[in-house]
């Protein structure tokens, strides 16, 4: 077996590894990459362009091109990536992706595009069996297509944190019925509209932390997690909430009650609110006491107007909900 210069190669049964990690490569070492290579690692180099022109990709199961300087990913012959399961293109300079590139990767399950310069992925055709998609750390401005990521119907984990997302079109994620984890942390969201997460019946973890959210519409989380047995987490820490309105909290509790009588989902919901500028008053006290099972971290969530936690806040002048008939 001939191994490319500066690379390490090893063979184990039917698996052939070619590892060229961190070798200061500026060009693709295609000359001696075997057509039976199953795992090709080119991470941590100085590649500005990747092309399949002189590379046989038929046997590849894993390709790692992370931490380079890639501005383009070229596949001029539109090759069939019959066996590729994992593709890592993170930490590069990619601004666009050929629309049908990933669609030809029929076996692809894990795709990492994080920390690039992507502005939009709405038109990209992702393979239907993709399970994990990471596009964190890009410049995506919104989730505004009627069916966002329309072809990725079996997606289980979607990470869109650290982008520039300002809005979510209602029901734009409704076809992602297998999605379990959604990360939208560190974006520019200010509100969550009705139906924003409608259809995410398998989801049990939505991370909305470190945004600028101050308002959530009544039915934002309707049918959230209706087919998942895991306890559900909605992370709203480090946002701009000063008031928590009872309408959307009550709807969350209704989701919990639905699961309580339905064997397909867990009735436990943990709403996390730490590090919001919450104003503790009679409204906050009543919402807390009436829907206490929904809140997950009030013991450590501080009132902005008093040196006390929301959990410990009590005003004798407020109506005692236990006396309300």
Helices and strands in order, then pairings?
Blueprint: E1 8-12, E2 15-19, E3 39-41, E4 49-51, E5 62-64, E6 72-74, E7 86-88, E8 110-112, E9 132-134, E10 142-143, E11 157-159, E12 167-168, E13 181-183, E14 191-192, E15 205-207, E16 215-216, E17 232-235, H1 246-260, E18 269-272, H2 282-290
Parallel strand pairs: 2-3, 3-5, 4-6, 5-7, 7-8, 8-9, 9-11, 10-12, 11-13, 13-15, 14-16, 15-17, 17-18
Antiparallel strand pairs: 1-2
Nutshell version of this structure?
The protein has 325 residues and is mainly beta. It has helices at 246-260, 282-290, and strands at residues 8-12, 15-19, 39-41, 49-51, 62-64, 72-74, 86-88, 110-112, 132-134, 142-143, 157-159, 167-168, 181-183, 191-192, 205-207, 215-216, 232-235, 269-272. The mean pLDDT is 93.
How many separate domains? 2
- Written as H for each helix and E for each strand, in order along the chain, the element string is EEEEEEEEEEEEEEEEEHEH
CATH class of the largest domain: Alpha Beta
Number of helices: 2
**Head-to-tail CA distance between termini:** 82 Å
> In order across it, which strands form the biggest sheet?
1-2-3-5-7-8-9-11-13-15-17-18
Number of strands: 18
Averaging pLDDT over every residue, what do you get?
93
CATH level-3 fold name of the largest domain: Leucine-rich repeat, LRR (right-handed beta-alpha superhelix)
